[in-house]
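new request in #modeling-help
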Amino acid sequence: MLPGSADLAAIWLTLKLASLTTVILLIVGTPIALWLSRTRSWLKGPIGAVVALPLVLPPTVIGFYLLLLLGPNGAMGQLTQSLGLGTLTFSFTGLVIGSVLYSLPFVVQPLQNAFAAIGPRPLEVAATLRAGPWDTFFSVILPLARPGFITGAILGFAHTVGEFGVVLMIGGNIPEKTRVVSTQIYNHVESMEYAQAHWLAGAMLVFSFVVLLALYSSGKARSAWSGA
Amino acid sequence: MSVRIEARLKVNYAEFALDVDLDLPGRGVTALYGHSGSGKTTCLRCIAGLEKAADGYIRVNGEVWQDSANHVFLPPHKRPLGYVFQEASLFPHLDVEGNLRFGLKRIAEGDRRITLQQATSLLGIDHLLSRAPDKLSGGERQRVGIARALLTSPRLLLMDEPLAALDAQRKSEILPYLERLHDELDIPLIYVSHAQDEVARLADHLVLLSDGKALASGPIGETLARLDLPLAMGDDAGVVIEGSVLAYDAAYQLITVQLPRSQLSIRVSHSALAPGKPLRFKVQARDVSLSLQPDAQSSILNRLPVTVIEEIAADNTAHVLVRLDADGSPLLARITRYSRDQLQLAAGQRLWAQIKSVALLA
């Protein structure tokens, strides 16, 4: 049996979620990575560890705390309610917030490695050539860290596409709102629709392989990820 | 507007302290000379603002760049300076022209005093414009780095051992370009180096740094000839004299160089040079011997009447260093203690200095 409209909706939602998450992560992750790569503050260790937490925590743990935080009794939930926005749990916005946290290390770490590899010298050179800090960021740091940005974007996107636990915990399984490919596969399996599950699971497998193949075939991007 | 560079800097790091009070001429080449760890690079980085001296006052030709007493600190990108690093540090994502234009395009057109064309021909890099930095030799990279700094039309040029990373051949490839800068541009240059030959060749003013302190600061000829400085120790001790070409003897291919403000001259083998051309040469202390008579029965070409000023112990007990005056120009002689006793040297004594070899520095 071919994939139905619910499957296509899930694929569309997944792509939308991953794209939005990646864009937000590149914007949010850049200053964090820049700070982590330059600072000598004692906070570097703790902040670095917090950023890396999603690498080791079960997604359900992140999802659980987010549920409490964003829910009607959580601090964020109280805030959004007082602003008349309702609660963000079981909404697409909530999913985006969860995904950003969940995929944060996959973007921050390649960027941090790329920034660290640049070293202080090009920035000093730029300063002696009259470039101010913002000018230096756009004319020197950004082009030199490009492999890191490519790696970070690919990994952030792919990792978001592959998330399941966090989505289930804070997004639930609402069609066209929070139902992404991974949860749709789960639905199919629960309802014994193995043919449909095959379609989606196979597509995910091929997608993931292609992404990783692209990543590992590009020497520059790979070195930014491994920090070599 | 005073044409001077004042820098009072105090830096206190855990393992290193710098405490200098420099008053440098606002034109020509000033060398910050010293061993590694003497603080010369820290000095330069503080002047550039790349490091912030905890307690500092920097004024360049009338403009205050730092005054910590009044919380003034101009960030490096707001200081009209050019900086040449030890490694050329070209931007790898830009080709040579992109590197050169990086600084140039950030200077308002009205403030530009040198064109891309002028800079590239001054440093002989016209043919390299479209090359990537990693396709250049070390010497070419450094020349691009110098041109890139010049193109910001700096009011002060700072160079941190620009030749240290190069082999002898590349060094001799770049030195003539640095001399051209010195001769053709009116930009004061502070040049950090631990190589005495570079300093002797380029510098007009010498600051001797040791352990974060300035032991001496003065015109190069005077400073190199001072016996109270560690410069006089070691094999390299000698003086630098800036004379001018007097005549050329085509038959023997010798030029006669007149000592400054003096009737004395020396002769040295060289191709023809125009009379009047200033020429810098170095006489090493170990190449100067002393004699009581103008002994003409010898192959030594240059004999000058000199007066003994003072003598000090050399770096080993068999030798002494003697400071001499040759009609206004300082000379150093490194002789054995035995010879000193034979000649019965005393301050004010007049005798003859025989100069075994003279090194032209240009």
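bot summary: The first strand of chain B starts at residue 4 and ends at 12.
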